Amino acid sequence: MPLIYNIPRSRISRIGIDALIVLFSWAISILLASGNFSISIFKSPDLFMAGILLVLYLLSFYAFQVYRVLWRYSHRRDYARLAYASVCAGLVFFAADRVIGPGFSMIEHVFSTLLIFFMCASYRMLEHDRGPAAPDGDEALSRRILIVGAGEAGRLILSEYYNRKIGSAVAAFADDDHEKIGRIINGKMVMGPLDRLQEIATGLGVNEIIVAMPSVSSARVDNVLAGMRRRQPGLAVKTLPPITKVFDDLPLVPDLMDSSLASLLNRDEFEIDLSSIEKIFEGKTVLVTGAGGSIGSELCKQVLKFGIRRLVAIGKGEHSIYTLAKSLGEYADFIQPRPEFVYRIADVRDRASMEMIFSGEKPDIVFHAAAHKHVPLMEFNEAEALRNNVCGTRTVLEMASKHGIERFVLVSTDKAVNPSSIMGASKRLAELTAAVYCRERGLRTAVVRFGNVLGSRGSVVPLFLEQIRKGGPVTVTHPDMTRYFMSIPEAALLVINAAAMSEKGETFVLDMGSPYRIAAIAEKLIRMNGLEPGKDIMIEYTGLRPGEKIEEELFYSMDDLAVTGNKRIHVLKKENPPLDSAALFGFIEQCEHGTLLAEVDPVRIRKRIQEIVPEYAFTVSDDETAGSTRIVS
Is 165 left (phi over 0), alpha (psi -120 to 50) or beta? Predict the structure, then answer.
């Protein structure tokens, strides 16, 4: 954890309260120890020593990270942190008094240290106890939660549920620590070890399990849960993602994710540069396009952690934006201060709508995530892919340039590298357009390129899970097909970190780790549901779909990558090749006005794209029915 950090504006008032407490406690200590209430600390040398005391305590509180703690969800370790800070400041002040001070008595030093800690802890306890006044409602009645792990993470999760007034939804704990079994923690019994999980869950009527045991191997947890899923298919199982430890001062519940997704990846924990991100985002208005999509909605959620003033979420789908508003409303209960929310139903291609939103909301930072991403579907909808992914990007870039946006971030894809599909080529065109706006318009842009995210709409995992629920078969296009994967929260946080790094049109590439075989993912999902591949659920290979490649690439050459301050984020050394911006904008104009997209010849459209993106390699199917039969494997 970095020693230097930004204090959110909402917590600056605590510094003032702490300062008053320190001065008041010191005054009371002197008065009580002397017995002479006519003595004033506002006279030299007492005033000088009081100033030293104040500075020492505030610096100690800062150094011990006291101002990072979200006290509404605090527990014993946070009050221990406050105690250590108080004792440390008291000892340093005692030494300073002996060297340069008048020599206050030991009683004055001890009493002031205890009083300062007691008063600072007391008003923080009041914040801990503060919460919504409503009693446990329908949500608590409909959920029966078993928290697996009675350690620090499990207890904090329970505390968060209590603060949301749905603590009664938690039925009990389970834990392998025999010293905890049979004990009551914050009103909940620790029932037994993992080996008895099925018995415990059945006995309590549990319909949701939260795994909060980072010390236990994922393989053991998966084996236990596989049998439970087989007997209870509707059982919801959530776990903490590896990103959770990045935020020591934020609650855990909002970041819980489906355990099947976490187990599939099994990626290591990673770090992000919290201080630099907070410095860039705190107090800003952030606009996200494509906010109803998987990445866009996660960007909206994660950016709330960095003290933004207002979030402007733009999406074309009414239902997706409604769902986003509902989920962010619940999530924002954990965020202090609560930001403003603006939701807009709009098409990024509509210049008038974008002008109205940009001029009215005046965003500081823009994340452009709106795009058509389904590769086979876009092969038969070239016009829509180009209008949305290219023309829409140009419109948002134009508004960002016109209204003086501080930072523009384009969410891109590995399919833009040596593209073989309309979708990939359209995203490469979007990357080139962003580069032109940086080079010729002075707009600070950044492109963030990464592979697939697990659990997104239209991705393989939801499709495989649906096929498993129906009894199979699970369909895979090719036995050797591989893809890069990361979780949606990890991708969103790294995109935000890359945005904070951006200076002059960089292309950032996220470290996706090693590629995963799609067939292996299918097999693991089947086993995680307590079934056996090839026996209970068959796997069928259906062949590559239009526009697909066996393997994807994240960059053109290993030599093109350079490291950044974050080992999970790389940056391309070489800038985009020289590009005729007039030719690019001429192509976009043809797309916007329909002169190119009126073409019915798919080959001509692709050859026109190839003039701008020469590395685009395409094939066109002669099968007229391909568009209706090969979209989903």
Answer: left
What is residue 367's three-state secondary structure? strand
430 alpha-carbon distance from chain centroid: 24
* CATH fold group of domain 274-629: Rossmann fold (3.40.50)
Instruction: Indicate the helix (H) or strand (E) that contains 628.
Output: helix 626-629
Classify residue 514 as left (phi > 0), alpha (psi -120 to 50) or beta. beta
8-22, 81-95, 458-472: which is most confident? 81-95
Residue type, 626: A
Helices (DSSP H) in 35-105: which residue ranges? 46-63, 76-100
Q: What order do you get walking across the sheet with 170-174 strand by strand?
A: 170-174, 145-148, 208-211, 236-239, 257-258
622: alpha, beta or left, given left = phi > 0 and alpha = psi -120 to 50? alpha
CA distances from 121 to 18, 78, 108, 155 (A): 10, 10, 20, 20
The answer on pLDDT for 14 being more than 60 is yes
Strands 257-258 and 184-185 turn out to be: unpaired
Name the pLDDT band for 628 (thresholds 50, 70, 90): very low
Ramachandran quadrant class, 539 (left: phi over 0; alpha: psi -120 to 50; beta: rest): beta
The residue type of 616 is Y
The one-character DSSP state at 577 is P
User: For the purposes of burial, counting CB atoms within 10 Å of the CB of 514, is it exposed (0-12), middle (13-18) or buried (19 or more)?
Assistant: exposed
- In this structure, what token pair is assigned to residue 2? 């970095």
Domains 138-265 and 274-629 share a fold: yes
Domain-by-domain residue ranges, the chain? 9-129, 138-265, 274-629
State both tokens at 454: 């697990």
**C-alpha–C-alpha distance, residues 58 and 67, integer Å:** 10
Burial of 279-314, coded b for 16+ CB within 10 Å and e otherwise, reads: ebbeebbbbbbbbbbbbbbbbbbbbbbbbbebbbbb
Q: Give, rounded to a whole angstrom, the gap between the first and last alpha carbons of the chain.
A: 46
What is the model's pLDDT at position 31?
79
Q: Return the minimum-mean-pLDDT range out of 265-269, 316-320, 436-440, 472-476.
A: 265-269
Correct CATH for 138-265 of 3.30.420.10, 3.40.390.30, 3.40.50.2300, 3.40.50.720: 3.40.50.720
| Distance from C-alpha of 590 to C-alpha of 603, rounded to nearest angstrom | 16
**Do 455 and 462 contact (CB within 8 A), yes or no?**
yes
Whether the per-residue pLDDT at 135 is higher than 50: the answer is: no
